[in-house]
């Protein structure tokens, strides 16, 4: 259970890193690397996080909050 949470936190940090790397490339006047590489990686990792959360909830590894208020 803790391994899944640690994996999700690491993936989320990598998503934020990819987002800021794309922002850095966008700020350059003549970028050598395509920004879409990092934005695509961010999209793929965000989908992976979503599927890991849904899969973990369906198997019972993570329990959602029944009362959000």
Query: What kind of oligomer do you see?
Result: single chain
Total beta strands:
0
Radius of gyration, whole Å: 16 Å
Instruction: State the low-pLDDT regions, or none.
Output: none
Proportion in helices: over 70%
**Outline, from the CA principal axes?**
elongated
Largest sheet: none
Strand content: under 5%
Q: Helix tally?
A: 2
Number of domains: 1
Order of helices and strands: HH
What structural category arises from helix and sheet content? mainly alpha
Termini separation comes to: 24 Å
Rounded average pLDDT: 88
Explain what this protein looks like in three dimensions:
- The chain contains two helices and no strands.
- It has one domain (2-26, 34-58).
- The chain is mainly α and 69 residues long.
- Helix 1 (2-27) packs antiparallel against helix 2 (35-59).
- It has helices at 2-27, 35-59.
- Helices cover 74% and strands 0% of the residues.
Short descriptors:
single chain, 69 residues, mainly alpha
Concise structural overview:
By secondary structure, the chain is an all-alpha fold.
Please outline the helices and strands.
Blueprint: H1 2-27, H2 35-59
């Amino acid at each position: 259970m803790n391994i899944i949470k640690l994996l999700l936190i690491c993936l989320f940090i990598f998503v934020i890193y990819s987002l800021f790397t794309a922002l850095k490339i966008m700020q350059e006047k003549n970028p050598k690397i395509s920004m879409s590489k990092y934005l695509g990686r961010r999209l793929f990792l965000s989908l992976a996080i979503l599927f890991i959360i849904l899969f973990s909830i369906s198997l019972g590894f993570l329990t959602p909050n029944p009362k959000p208020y």
